[in-house]
Amino acid sequence: MARETNRLTARSIATKPPGRHPDGNGLYLLVRENGARSWVFRYMLATKRHDLGLGAAGNEPGAVTLAEARKKAGVLKTQVEGKIDPAATRKSEKAARLVAAAQYPRIAPNTFRDVAKECIAAKEKAWSNAKHIYQWTATMEKFVYPHFGDIPVADVGTGHVKAALEPIWLNKTETAVRVRGRIETILDYATTLEWRIGPNPARWKGHLANVFPAPAKVAKSEHHPSLPWSEVGRFLVALREIGSTSALALELLILTASRSGEVLKATWREIDWDAAIWTRPASHMKGKIEHQQPLSPAALAVLKKAQALAIKEGPDSFVFAGQPRAGGKPEAGLSDMTLTMLIRRMNRAEDGSLPPWVDKEGTPIVPHGFRATFRTWADDATAFDHSTKEATIAHVEGDKVVRAYARSDLLKKRRDLLEAWAEHCARVLPEAGNVVPLRAVGG
Q1: Distance between CA atoms of 391 and 289, rounded to whole angstroms?
Q2: In this predicted model, what pLDDT tens digit does every residue of 249-296 receive, in sequence order?
Q3: Which one of 3.40.630.30, 1.10.150.130, 3.40.50.300, 2.60.40.1120 gives the CATH number of domain 112-218?
Q4: Alpha helix (H) ranges present in 360-410?
Q5: Phi, psi of 361, rounded to the nearest 5 degrees
Q6: Could you tell me the pTM of the whole model?
Q7: How far is CA 383 from the centre of its chain?
Q8: What's the half-sphere exposure (Cβ side, CA atoms, 13 Å) at 49?
């Protein structure tokens, strides 16, 4: 006996010939002669037959899947059983929206640039890190707006997206992948608010994947520009001359091989002066695992200086707080861009000469690059084992099974390594080209 409901399958939808094919509960798959497929809900009310369209059928973006169509049909069937006409309800809801729009008119953003700004502002509320706003805005301005920023958002197509991504897909693959995802999000935002229709031209699967090579096959690691380890001593001499709170934060970042967010979110509660340990909560860590970082005497000295400059006291106060505002209230903490801007100022030469703090390729360094500086020094100039070096920079090694058996936090070895690093940072070595190899330490 044929099934009364759920007659169709996800696979059969794509192969059904032209005609009307029942699934049950009033749901039909309508296949037209040109191959177009859509869902129809058929019902009887007051001895009259009605057909109500439920959208295009399929699994591609914007289409209605079989499961979704069945769910919609179930809701409509319940309405019909309650003597409610779904078609009349749809018309009244549309009329109500038109009335509301007339009473509270809103000018929809026109260009992609306008929509992008509104989308970023809407997402800002959910972002805990201010750098996300900067990164989204900066990548739009640099890579996207020059190509189609002033194009009406409704007209943005695959050609526009391709033109923006093509120049950076092979040589800045990681950035290009992020940019593509951001364009897709902004266009989805516009579609949701009915400012454009149709599939998203920035989608990857089944679309741009046919145009660009897979990122994994062409991606080149985009390293953060890092200072050669032979120059860290000279850099710290220049940094200490500044004497600001942000300079102390950057010095602690260097001495502890930490990430910017870990330093800028640090509170005094995390510092154990007696044990010389900085316990960073999981919420501050990239790997979302609590991390105990040993503090060398040099790092403790930096914290003592920060304590003397502290604006606000208390265990939950930030170690590196911003300066008071006009209203007298201090900043919640230094912004994520503070350390970046500090290095940029250190690299700004009034006489027009080249910046002094650059990587081996001559690119100005960034705060995160000091983790690579530390790691390279540890490889080149020490005999410490790989696990100790990775644990010091809070890299999570192996899968869950491996980590379940590797329970040692290597605290003693990591303390020895960081103290050796602090000793190295205290040395002002000859400039590049005149560096004398050092005897390997540790192990």
Answers
A1: 12
A2: 999 999 999 998 899 989 999 999 999 999 998 888 877 788 899 999
A3: 1.10.150.130
A4: 369-381, 386-392, 400-405
A5: -90, 0
A6: 0.53
A7: 36
A8: 5
